[in-house]
Amino acid sequence: MSAPATAPASAKQSTMVPFAPGDILLGATDLNNPADDHAGDGRIFQFDKNFHLKGVLYTTGTTHLVKGLTFGPDGLLWAFDSAEHAVIFVDPKTGKQVDPKHKFPAKPWSSAFFDKAGNTYIHEHLNGTPDMVPEKYRGMTRLVPGSNRVGDGKVYKYSPDDKLLDTYDTETSTSFAGYLGVTSCVLHRSEEHTSELQS
């Protein structure tokens, strides 16, 4: 049985509108690529505070799971596609995806948080070498440029003008998948330590 034909994301209508107080935003990639069960049209749903659907944004520059939604100190909504090494930005004033406002190296980013000084702590979703990746995903998993690794599972601290300030090692297990790093991370309100999570 063949998979149903689906329109490419570029042919789908984005209906996201300017954000309002109480809006709920949810990354929900349409997994419509029969060759890869983690791939498909990236999208972000927008609901009002009563969970009524207001719109959807079909993301560009993504091919896999759109995740890690968070608001940056620049006021933009940030989201991540670790397979594409992509950080995408959405303008709350228009509900539209905008050109990258920050430049980070190509790594499998999963999420970010920000301290009171406006520094960015951005996290690597993957950790390991290609042989640690399950065979069915190997051909679809990128190497970090200039390395023989899919990622290092670290947390990186960048200044507001995108200068690398520090790198933090994390304790990650091989996980059930064999190659996951930091899938999400939070900063304690004291800004003295973080909690890294692996799903």
Structure explained in plain terms:
The chain is mainly β and 199 residues long. Helices cover 2% and strands 33% of the residues. Strands 4-5-6-7 form a four-stranded antiparallel beta sheet, with no helix packed on it. It has a four-stranded antiparallel beta sheet with strand order 8-9-12-13, with no helix packed on it. The two termini are 32 Å apart.
Topology:
Elements: E1 24-27, E2 43-47, E3 53-58, E4 67-71, E5 77-81, E6 86-91, E7 96-98, E8 109-114, E9 120-124, E10 127-128, H1 135-138, E11 151-152, E12 155-158, E13 164-168, E14 184-187, E15 194-197
Antiparallel strand pairs: 1-2, 2-3, 4-5, 5-6, 6-7, 8-9, 9-12, 10-11, 12-13, 14-15
Brief sketch in words of this structure:
The protein is an all-beta fold and 199 residues long. The chain has one helix at residues 135-138; strands spanning 24-27, 43-47, 53-58, 67-71, 77-81, 86-91, 96-98, 109-114, 120-124, 127-128, 151-152, 155-158, 164-168, 184-187, 194-197.
